Amino acid sequence: MYPASIPELLLLDTPSALEKQIGTVRREITGYYSGVHSQAQGIIDRWISVEEKVETRIKSFRDPTEPMNPGLLYTGISALTTSVLTRSRALPTRILLPPAALVGAFAYFLPGTASRVGAYAEELEDRYVPRVGEIRRTSIAHSGIAWERAKEGVAAGRESVNNGVKSIVERIEEGTGLKLKAMGWAQDVKKEAQSVASVAQKDLKEAIESKSSSGDSEDSKRLA
Fold first, then answer.
1. What per-residue confidence (pLDDT) applies to 218?
2. Which pLDDT score is estimated for 164?
3. CB neighbours (10 Å) of residue 80?
4. What whole-number distance in Å separates Cα of residue 139 and Cα of residue 217?
């Protein structure tokens, strides 16, 4: 009596086995790429942080009252000149003198910056190798005490020589009636005595420095 209704057709999208396999591989590749990208981004971020810390630390070394351009130029020229002059010398000389000239020129031309760098080096020394720092500071203190005692001894010896020369001149004047002080002979003798005392002071300083360096090496051996 009534016409039959047309049945609705429902199409189901059923992926094939190949499509499922392709989808699985694509998702795995996407996840692996996301993980690698995250790790690479983390490494880049850490590297940028390290660069910023290094830049901040280097900027903190600079003394605003010192011009960097000529000071660094003179320091490099000093080290290069020393390297050229010592190229025909013995191997220890070629190895030790250029760095020593570099450090000395840096401390001379940029004393404020060198002081800040030295303070940071001492901070690292106390943080990582405190025993070495103690040995170094003890050696420096002993060298300073020995140097002060040596200066006092040389000053006392110079004063004794001056008094002896003065006493001799006065006795000669009393015995002969000559005015040696007016003739300038006494001043010449005094200058000669002072020259001898200065040479003795120099030799004593070198001996103290050599003894200090040998003491440092012995302390380092005991530490090792």
1. 47
2. 79
3. 13
4. 10
For the cut 80, the answer to whether the pLDDT of residue 166 exceeds it is no
**Among the listed residues 141, 134, 147, the one whose alpha carbon sits nearest the alpha carbon of residue 209:** 147
Alpha helices in 62-184 (DSSP H): 68-85, 91-109, 111-128, 130-176, 180-183
What is the reported pLDDT for 193? Answer: 55
pLDDT of residue 192: 57
Q: Which of these, 95, 135, 102, 138, lies nearest to 117 by C-alpha position?
A: 102
Determine the Cα–Cα distance for residues 6 and 109; give it in Å rounded to an integer: 101
Q: Which amino acid is at 184?
A: G
> Are 98 and 82 within 8 A, CB to CB?
yes
pLDDT band at 152 (very low <50, low <70, confident <90, very high): confident
Q: How far apart (Å, rounded) are the C-alpha atoms in residues 163 and 157?
A: 10
DSSP-based three-state secondary structure for 162: helix
**Following CA atoms 42, 43, 48, 52 in sequence, which dihedral angle do they give, to the nearest 10 degrees?**
100
Q: Give the Cα separation of 35 and 49 in Å (integer).
A: 21
Residue 214: half-sphere exposure toward Cβ, Cα within 13 Å: 6
